[in-house]
Structures are given as structure tokens and as C-alpha cells.
């Protein structure tokens, strides 16, 4: 593509995920702390007379789990942005996916955020940030965070995000699985396991304090995911991955969001490399990711 624009967008983990009883609109209220981790998709937009989407996947991404052409979340992002401005959907969009699919890492949300930013540039729309965040929230609960990045507190159904102070430089070992978990299935199991979930989910004070202090041991103690029991119920073997990671030296393992990816918080980059090295022979893919990292950002090529 000539005159192309590339936007790099990170995956997320939920350091804290408090889930309440379903609201009248069917969504679950969340009280969550997101953190953007150094695992990325690239969304590249270029001019074309029609509309084309090309999704390429790296080795550890299950291409077969992606929706058929026309149904990708980047198509929806393009239509929403174009409708907002009354312009035509036109261009060539390439998505280079390195974030595993249906993994609890919000890869689809990352692509939607990347498409919004890349197409805003390509179509020279100069959409104000507040409008972009609102459109992102319409596309999915995790999409606004993919724009914001860093570490952020999320409320509502997760779409209302505010950056929070984060003094740490954190290291994660990430163990994804080719076979994903459906987020709606995990929420359904959550409802069965927690018929008495509170209307207002509990909040993440200890996580926010650990981030502010940059204290990795306090953060390890405070990590919490209300969806973990549901994800483990659907995929019991994930408990073994968490145990193996902690035995290998990870400070604390947990299921990322709705799973099935297991993430392990480590004490340093060296410790993360050691944990990843120990786990690598037993699992198809073991990745290392620093955090926090920036949200959707332009990649400037030399
Ligand atoms: P979340 O943590 O936000 O629930 P996730 O990481 O579990 O998300 P995604 O990878 O975002 O899951 O995919 C969720 C669903 O969205 C999948 O069923 C997938 O087919 C569909 N989807 C649509 N577009 C994309 C895309 N560009 N990348 C990944 N999945 C996509």
C-alpha cells in the first residue's frame, strides 16, 4: 500500500475484574483495572476505491477462529466511523494479528481501536477524542481501553475508562491456547455459579494502591478475577497451568479476563524469562510481555 498508516494496538490483562449481576440491558456491570501489555496487533490503512480487509496471523494465532470476511470487528468499526461523519467506507485495511483470538486478551477490541485511529487519519476526519471513545464504547466494552492504554480503571460495562497512576515496570508471562473460550459462555457460567452477585461489583482498592506504589509483591497479592472460577469450571486444566507457572517462579498466576489465557506476574524481566523458559517445553506458546504500554499509536517508519 502507498500512503499507508499503521497503528499498533496492545492486548490487555485485567489486574482486577469485579463482576456484578446482569443489568436490565443484559450487560454485566464491571469494576475493573486494565493494563496494556506488550503484545500487539498492527492495523494498516491505505487508500482504495472500494473496501478491502486482509487479516494475517502469526503462528500462535488461530486464523480459523476469526469471523468470515465482512464480519470482522474492523468492518464494524469502519462502518460506525463512516456513518458518524457521513462519509463512504473506502480503503484497504490490513490487520497483522499477534494477539491470540478469543483469549481474554481483547485482541478483537484492539483491532477495532486500531481501525478507528487508522481510518480517522486516512479519511482526514480529525474526530475529537471524546467522540472516538464513545464510538469505541459502542463497538465493545474493551475498545475504549485499547485507545487509552497504560493502566486504567474501567466501570460501567468496562467502557468508561480513566487512566490511573502506575509507577511500576511490570513483567508478564503469557500462556495462550489455540482453542479459545467464548466470552458470553464464561459470563453464562458466572451467572450460574454466582446467582447472588451484587448489583454493584466490589472495587479494586488494593490493586490501585500497588500500582501507585510500584510494588510488585503487593500487586501479586491483590490480583483478582471474578470470572476465573467460571473459566476454570469450563477449562479445569488451566488451574494446572497457573500452578506450574507459580512453581516455576511466577509471583502469581491468573486467568486473563474471560480466559483461557493464563498470565503470570513476575518479579523482573529476568524472572519472566526464567519462568517462560521452564514452561516452554510443556506448552505450544509461552510469551513474555512488559507492561504498562501505550494504547493505540501510530507507527512511524523511518
Ligand atoms: P475480550 O477479552 O474482549 O472478551 P477476547 O480476547 O476473549 O476478547 P477476541 O479475540 O477479541 O476475544 O475475539 C472475540 C470474538 O470476536 C471471536 O469470536 C472472534 O471471532 C470475533 N472477532 C471479530 N473480529 C475479530 C478480530 N479482528 N480479531 C479477533 N477476533 C475477532
Distance between the termini: 16 Å
Oligomer: single chain
Low-confidence runs: none
The biggest beta sheet, please?
A: 8 strands, mixed
Structural class: alpha+beta
What fraction, in percent, of the residue positions are helical? 25-40%
Q: Could you say which small molecules are bound to this protein?
A: adenosine-5'-triphosphate
Percent in strands: 25-35%
The count of β-strands is 12
Question: Outline, from the CA principal axes?
Answer: globular
Number of helices: 10
- How much is the radius of gyration in Å? 19 Å
The arrangement of helices and strands along the chain is: EEEHEHHHEEEHHHEHHEEHEE
The overall pLDDT average reads 96
Task: Please give a handful of descriptors for the protein shown.
26% strand, alpha+beta, eight-stranded mixed sheet, 302 residues, binds adenosine-5'-triphosphate
Explain this structure.
The chain has helices at 73-85, 107-122, 129-139, 143-148, 183-193, 205-213, 216-222, 228-234, 238-247, 269-279; strands at 5-19, 30-46, 51-57, 91-97, 151-155, 160-163, 170-175, 224-225, 252-255, 262-266, 287-291, 297-298. It contains ten helices and twelve strands. The model has no long low-confidence stretch (mean pLDDT 96). The protein is α+β, with helices and mostly antiparallel strands. A hairpin with a 6-residue loop joins β9 and β10 (262-266). The strands form two sheets. Strands 1, 2, 3, 4, 5, 6, 8 and 12 form an eight-stranded mixed beta sheet that branches. The protein has a four-stranded antiparallel beta sheet with strand order 9-10-7-11, sandwiched between helices. The two termini are 16 Å apart. α1 runs parallel beside α2 (107-122) and α5 packs across α8. The site of adenosine-5'-triphosphate has 21 residues, from α1 and α2.
